[in-house]
Amino acid sequence: MAENNLGTCYYSGKGMARDYTVAAKWYRAAAEAGVAAGQANLAFLYLTGTGLPRSEQEAEKWFRKSAEQGSVLAQASLGLLYRAGRGVPLDYIQSYVWFSLAAARGNQDSVRGRKELEQVMTPRQIEEAQRRISDWNAAHP
Q1: Between the CA of residue 137 and those of 2, 115, 131, what are the distances in Å?
Q2: Burial level of 41, CB count in 10 A (0-12/13-18/19+)?
Q3: Three-class secondary structure of residue 7 per DSSP
Q4: For residue 31, what are the contacts with CB-CB under 8 A and spacing of at least 6?
Q5: pLDDT tens, 118-131?
């Protein structure tokens, strides 16, 4: 966790000079140690190309690792990536799943994202998404 905090200090410039490259180094150390916040922060840097080369595929990878640990921010971010097909194939069902998981934990942007998807998804797609959500919840008590 200390690595993630150092990354945040370098990212924000709090207590030291702002340095996105050094922030990325510390976030990577936290991410590789399994810290969900570090994984989400590293994913964001990859998504935006801040402090390291932009890579939507790497962003998805690190958001997923964080989301699997219950990070609401990472779950909401995956919902956005799948809805737009950024770094992953466009997939409304998977987007709905991630938005629903984040919405269940209070993320209001995900509530809105899920409602928007319901306007373009078929009942069968929504049913499949709900099945995947049920499977997720069973595997992540």
Answers
A1: 30, 20, 10
A2: buried
A3: helix
A4: 38, 39, 41, 42, 62, 65
A5: 999 999 999 999 99
Question: 112 in helix, strand or coil?
Answer: helix
Distance of alpha carbon 130 from alpha carbon 109, whole angstroms: 19
The pTM of the whole model exceeds 0.85: yes
What pLDDT sits at residue 71?
97
**CB 94, CB 82: distance < 8 Å:** yes
CA distance to 3, 113, 115, 118, 139, per residue, from 84 (Å): 31, 11, 15, 15, 27
First to last CA, the chain: 24
CB-hemisphere CA count at 13 Å for 16? 11
Quickly count: other Cβ atoms within 10 Å of residue 63's Cβ.
Answer: 30
* Strand ranges in the chain using DSSP code E only, listed in sequence order: none
The separation between CA 15 and the C-alpha centre of its own chain, rounded to angstroms, equals: 27
Full set of structural domains in the chain with CATH? 1-69 (1.25.40.10), 70-141 (no CATH)
